[in-house]
Design goal:
325 residues; mainly alpha; 2 strands; 57% helix
Length: 325
């Protein structure tokens, strides 16, 4: 992020090609030839690094901004739930609500580029490393000093993670960042949360409320269908928030809602569980962090979820702590 701000790149004039040019341009050998490599072992050598999560950290503002947006969606949706019937312009789904908050953009510039394709199979160590080298050279040409960030599907991500560990001086994590794409990251998070909610009665509650059948509700724990799983968690977030507000009004407490909620969590294990469950369910904010480059907040929330005592996903916890860097 810092390198990107210091080296935004150079503005270049539009490329003009003459229609009379018919000759074929050949790719340089440095691009077309894929050097052969092999991983003789899979030893992991992860460098130690510390992350500043103190409130004085300027990046903490990303966390505060994301939580404000999350609260805005919850408050707006709870007001809509008071209606007998939703109007066409009412947006209660998390994605639709946040889409309305984005400013309109007229004719946005394209920031995508398609490089010449390779014949080699992508899921090989040689192609993974060569692809990272090509990407680094292209970014260094356009934005000198910018650290490349490569996103991949889960199978390719598992191979790509071995590259910086084997060549730390040239492809280390301080020189080239590799992470899973948004789809597989979201599925891994929902899958981890499903392990936390397993045997908690969550699926039975969904079935009794006729939100989903018993079999479909059980599939939410394994993220068999991504869109249905996301919808189920959104419904759970709003339900928990609504029940908490109703309990607060019935208590007729003079304390503020946050203070009342904190006191109830200290005195009631059940209330403490559902309060923490409500926080864990707010994973859509993690997706916003991916889309809006809130990397620090994404890492913090991922590690909080994966490091919970009730979470049996030791493998996810290990990789979450590695990606926290």
């Amino acid at each position: 992020m810092k390198a990107h701000q210091l080296n935004p790149g150079h503005e270049r004039p539009p490329l003009a090609l003459s229609s009379s040019q018919t000759r074929m341009h050949h790719l340089p050998d440095s691009y077309a030839i894929v050097p052969a490599i092999a991983f003789k072992n899979t030893d992991v050598a992860v460098p130690k690094i510390s992350v500043n999560t103190e409130p004085t950290n300027p990046r903490q503002n990303h966390l505060d901004q994301a939580m404000i947006k999350e609260k805005s969606w919850v408050d707006s949706s709870l007001l809509l739930l008071e209606k007998e019937e939703l109007a066409k312009e009412d947006k209660i789904v998390w994605g639709a609500h946040n889409a309305l908050q984005q400013p309109p953009s007229k004719d946005p510039p394209s920031v995508c580029a398609l490089l010449p394709l390779f014949y080699e199979k992508a899921a090989t160590p040689s192609m993974i490393k060569h692809g990272m080298d090509v990407q680094r050279q292209a970014i260094a040409h356009l934005s000198p000093g910018q650290i490349p960030v490569t996103t991949m599907d889960q199978p390719l991500f598992a191979l790509a993670k071995l590259v910086p560990w084997k060549w730390p001086s040239t492809h280390g994590e301080h020189l080239h960042i590799v992470m899973m794409g948004g789809l597989h990251t979201e599925m891994a998070l929902w899958n981890t949360l499903g392990d936390v909610l397993e045997a908690s009665g969550w699926t039975a509650a969904l079935a009794e409320a006729e939100i989903a059948s018993s079999g479909v509700a059980d599939s939410f724990l394994r993220v068999t269908h991504l869109m249905r799983t996301r919808h189920a968690h959104e419904v759970t977030v709003l339900t928990l928030q609504k029940l908490q507000q109703e309990a607060y009004l019935q208590s007729k407490s003079n304390a503020s809602f946050p203070k009342w909620k904190s006191d109830m969590c200290k005195g009631s294990p059940t209330c403490s569980y559902f309060c923490s469950g409500s926080q864990r369910e707010k994973l859509p904010t993690l997706l916003a962090s991916l889309g809006e480059a809130y990397t620090t907040f994404f890492c913090i929330r991922s590690c909080e979820l994966c490091s919970m005592d009730a979470c049996p996903h030791q493998r996810h916890e290990k990789f979450a702590r590695l990606d926290k860097k």
